[in-house]
Specification:
single chain, alpha+beta, Alpha-Beta Plaits, 2 domains, two-stranded antiparallel sheet, 11 strands, about 20% helix
């Protein structure tokens, strides 16, 4: 009888996806992909970020972990820093907090805060187009669902289109210590803590 193959240890990477990079390893159109940044074999993205969005992406070799992270029933929080056109009023922000009616239904209530000063982020390449007659503002938004282009659709619905979007956290996992295009592996203790957080979210 052939020897049983040892189970591969769980690997989880946190990666700062730059602007203009697909959340996949191949692209028939030749656009930038994860393959240009992640040399680790047999890991796959747990969820995605749009081509024109930036920030935290988790990759893992665990199908069970991908299923937990991408299943909306677990409602784990994802936090974004969002630059929008003009300065939203408190009434605008309350709409986001209560939920926005989109074409695919009412969004879950979001945690939303208007930042007093711009966040300390690296400049985007290419930079956001500056317009002297159109002020901008930064919001910190935490969602517990992940519809396609949800943040952009929500801010557009209140009349404040998104100019730049950076995901800074998934649960307790953050971008701390990373720069755009960099990745780090989670330690076994961090992976165990991630699993505990996902299990608590299902209670």
């Amino acid at each position: 009888m052939a020897a049983t193959r040892a189970r591969e240890p769980t690997c989880v990477l946190r990666f700062w996806k730059p602007y203009g990079v697909l959340s996949q390893f191949t692209d028939p159109e030749g656009r930038p992909t994860l393959a240009q940044y992640i040399p680790v074999r047999n890991v796959y993205s747990a969820g995605r970020l749009d081509y024109d969005s930036e920030g935290l992406l988790l990759l893992t070799n665990s199908g069970a972990l991908i299923a937990r992270l991408t299943n909306p029933r677990y409602a784990h929080p994802k936090t974004y820093l969002v630059q929008v056109e003009r300065v939203p009023s408190e009434a605008d922000l309350d709409q986001l907090r209560r939920g926005i009616q989109l074409k695919d239904g009412l969004t879950r209530p979001a945690q939303v805060r208007l930042l007093e000063t711009p966040p300390d982020l690296p400049e985007r390449t290419p930079p956001i187009r500056y317009r002297a007659n159109v002020p901008t503002a930064w919001l910190r938004i935490t969602l517990t669902e992940g519809r396609k282009r949800q943040v952009r659709r929500m801010t557009a619905a209140i009349g404040h289109p998104t100019l730049r979007l950076v995901r800074v956290a998934i649960g307790n996992i953050t971008l701390d210590g990373l720069r755009p295009g960099e990745y780090r592996a989670l330690s076994p203790a961090q992976i165990a803590a991630l699993w505990r957080a996902l299990r608590r979210a299902n209670r």
